Automatic annotation (TrEMBL):
The lineage of its organism: Bacteria, Bacillati, Bacillota, Bacilli, Bacillales. Residues 1-22 form the signal peptide. The keyword Signal applies. This is Uncharacterized protein. The keyword Signal applies.
Length: 203
């Protein structure tokens, strides 16, 4: 008798479980159908990589605004006499802001205009156009060098005039070889101190 009651109890429990499972499935199916009917879109998980925005495009105008101290500083200007040749060299440095613009592909160059007493000795008014340098490795310090060949031997007095004169002008040119800044007496720039030398003269 007890065995019969136990068997009936198992049959009853199984029937309830099956009914509950069917109700749950029907409820889930109705929810999916309702979502589809209302136009809801389930979020999708993707591996899409968001690329950075297009790089900023710079122009000559951008460097013309900031090709000034403290963004650009001449650190050294030297003149050496070797036989019938006068050799000039200049070390200069950029800050990060100006370097970033130049490193985007903007070109620049220099011309050094000689003081009148030097012009008469060298028989030349200025240097040739000297291409500016920029390195993609983040380097901020650069140097340039050029020379002037003279027809005759320079006397010590003449070389002293060339070497000691402070009136050399530094012209900065854009990619079209147009002068956009003139630094008269740029040799004084080696003494530039940010915050103390803001009155450095330029055109």
């Amino acid at each position: 008798m007890k065995a019969a009651i136990f068997i009936l109890l198992l049959i009853f429990i199984s029937g309830c479980s099956g009914t509950l499972q069917r109700d749950t499935n029907e409820s889930n199916n109705k929810e999916v159908a309702n979502n589809n009917s209302t136009g809801l879109v389930q979020p999708l998980v993707t591996n899409e990589v968001i690329t950075p925005s297009q790089e900023i495009q710079y122009s000559d105008k951008d460097i013309e605004k900031i090709f000034l101290p403290p963004n650009f500083i001449v650190k050294k200007f030297e003149i050496v006499h070797k036989e019938k040749k006068i050799e000039f060299s200049m070390d200069y440095i950029f800050n990060d802001e100006l370097y970033t613009i130049l490193n985007s592909g903007i070109t620049y160059s220099f011309v050094i205009v000689y003081p009148e007493p030097v012009q008469s000795i060298l028989n030349n008014k200025n240097s040739e156009i000297i291409p500016g340098k920029i390195s993609s490795d983040g380097r901020l310090n650069y140097s340039l060098s050029f020379s002037e060949v003279v027809d005759s031997e320079i006397s010590e007095e003449q070389f002293k005039t060339i070497q000691d004169n402070m009136e050399y002008q530094l012209h900065v040119l854009n990619s079209k070889d147009e002068v956009f800044h003139i630094f008269p007496t740029f040799r004084y720039m080696v003494d530039y101190e940010e915050g103390k030398s803001d009155d450095l003269f330029y055109k």
